[in-house]
Design brief:
Blueprint lengths: L1 H22 L10 H12 L3 E2 L2 E2 H8 L5 E3 L4 E4 L1 H4 L1 H13 L6 H27 L2
Antiparallel strand pairs: 1-2, 3-4
Helix pairs in contact: 1-6, 2-5, 2-6, 5-6
Length: 132
């Protein structure tokens, strides 16, 4: 429950940051750095729940993999959030390499926040498993 609330709050903050970034009155060019924003938005869409449909779960299912570490009753470790790292890591790299282009800064910020939370949640999961 906590991870769901955390995910939704981070996504709301990220959307607000995107809105504020687009409202700024600077005229940046669109280029490879703009891909950072697009990749970060795709990374946010992977674990997002659209009713009963989760894009990341469907992608893992398509690959023949389970989205949960206990697929019998869909509990324990949800792998979908880590699938989004495939989008966040390149977004972060592109954002750092092309900081003067439109969307690069906000894409870099979104990706770094999400990757930080993903790493923290992975560490908490590992600690909780070893403490049992």
């Amino acid at each position: 429950m906590f991870s769901i609330m955390l995910t939704y709050s981070i996504q709301a903050i990220a959307i607000l940051l995107i809105i504020f970034e687009s409202l700024r009155k600077n005229r940046k060019k669109v280029g490879w750095g703009s891909l950072s924003l697009l990749l970060s938005l795709l990374g946010m869409a992977v674990p997002f729940e659209f009713g009963d449909y989760i894009l990341g779960d469907q992608l893992l299912s398509f690959l023949g993999l389970s989205a949960w570490s206990n697929p019998v009753d869909n509990t324990r470790f949800h792998y979908t959030i880590y699938l989004s790292s495939i989008f966040f890591i390149p977004s972060l790299i592109i954002g750092y390499k092309n900081p003067k282009e439109f969307g690069a800064t906000i894409g870099k910020r979104i990706s770094s926040m999400y990757l930080f939370l993903i790493i923290i949640s992975l560490l908490l999961f590992i600690i909780s498993n070893f403490s049992k």
